[in-house]
Amino acid sequence: MAASIMHLPNCMIWPSFLHLTRQISRQHNIRLGKHPLGKRFLCTQHTLSQASKEPSRTSSVPPPRKMPTRYYGQPAPHTHPHLLQNKEVTYGVSRLEYSHRRQRFVSEMIQRAARKHENVSRHIVLIPSAVQQYMTHDIPYVFRQNTDFWYLCGFLEPDSVLLIEATKSKNITTLFVPPRNASRELWDGPRAGTDGAVELTGVDQAYSIDEFEKYLQAYLKGSRNFGIWYDYVTPANPTVHGSVIRKFITQERQAFVEQCKPLIQKLRVIKSPAEIELLRRAGQIASESMMETMKFSYPQVDEHFLWAKMEYECKIRGANYLAYPPVVAGGNRANTIHYINNNQLIQDNDLVLMDAGCELFGYNSDLTRTWPVSGSFTHPQRLLYEAVLEVQTMCVNMCSPGVSLDCLYQEMCLMTGDKLKQLGILPSDLSGNDLLKAMYPYCPHHLSHYLGMDIHDCSDIPRSIALAPGMVITVEPGIYIADHDDRVPPEFRGIGIRIEDDVVITENLPEVLTIGCAKHPDTIERIVQSR
Fold this sequence. Notes:
By secondary structure, the protein is of the alpha+beta class. It is built from 15 helices and 23 strands. It has helices spanning 2-6, 10-28, 95-116, 147-153, 182-188, 193-201, 212-221, 238-250, 261-268, 273-295, 303-316, 379-397, 405-422, 432-439, 521-529; strands at 88-90, 93-94, 122-128, 134-136, 139-140, 161-166, 171-177, 205-208, 226-230, 256-258, 301-302, 321-322, 327-330, 345-346, 351-356, 358-360, 363-364, 367-372, 472-475, 478-481, 495-498, 501-504, 511-512. The strands form 8 sheets. Strands 8-7-6-3-9-10 form a 6-stranded mixed beta sheet, sandwiched between helices. Strands 12-16-17 form a 3-stranded antiparallel beta sheet, with helices on one face. Strands 13-15-18 form a 3-stranded antiparallel beta sheet. It is globular.
């Protein structure tokens, strides 16, 4: 397509583009020149040569330098002023916040080492970036950075390494990055290089990744009795692990090797105000987009069409992409919890269960709604839907400091069991463990998981710990009744319902980040019927 457009005169391309843009703008009430991320968009005439100098930073961040007047391998304030404000490394997250994250990580690391290895005073941290993955030869997947690497520095290029040398009194942060290479940049786009990496992220120094092994060998010559912090069980970059880091470790100059991930996830599970704002915006985008997708529903609609509609609506609101392959399950297919084939027609009088979210500059939303494509719930559908909605509302209200996800799950199971008894799906005399055992086939998943930079965020953090302010979780009860389950009254068979919201734990009442997406059955019917 691109090749054919290149042969058209500019006078033909530009008016057609403007016409299409104005059509989209009128349809979605988006003003030309206004970015979907709102007031952060700066309608300026900035050019690379007009990039301004930064004001002084605190002592924990390196002193300001002039920003190179060129593009990097990721957005920067001087190249993307509509996305990044001055001193931001990634959208909404400043150099100072990334610096504080590294300081907190080092503090946790040194405290842990003092308890287990009291005679060790020097530490080296090795956190590789992700590696570019390919579908086939020379055809890449969209690159997704290693989350822990991203969390600590914000650098978004592959084939890099974050190295921190730390003692009780000071630490030095170094990035090893892909070198500038005119041939590769012609095909793959610009690279930050060493100077760009320092200026963008605020780390102390940067070197070419080609110098990584030499740097580690020099470290060995001047160091003894130090600790290595590196995730060796599941290396983020198998090539760097096999060719450099394993060789460094097997020389056995260190006192110990510890995993980084548990310490980083301990930090990541509590979100900063900047992170909560990003999650709030991701939840808003997903909520608005799913409401538009509801309006697009009709009998015989293809599940794939609803997937495409959801993705389109998220992206025109500023999301980078969908956070995961969505579930778009019509009728009995909703009883497959992670159904992602999304290739069937949804019949009249069927419900559609959509589980979808978006990623906004590294932070995710995770939202599920269930609605009738005809625009009206049948009586059995409404009974089941209202049962799930009542359970979900009570669970959300219970989200407060001191409660664990496992405790919430236990309460959800008991409440769902009671609802199934009231509907005649389970025997009325069941209670306690017998009720839980009988209920489980009708809701075989947990109520909740942590949410953040990953959809199932901080997977090493147990669900048994007490919730604390700043944690973000999902609340997603469901009832699933297969069409062949002859233990259940026929009118309920083939119905699967889940309702999911994203919730911030606060000192007071929980904040629902996806509150903008309708879930009362009467409201849902009005939305679908408004198509």
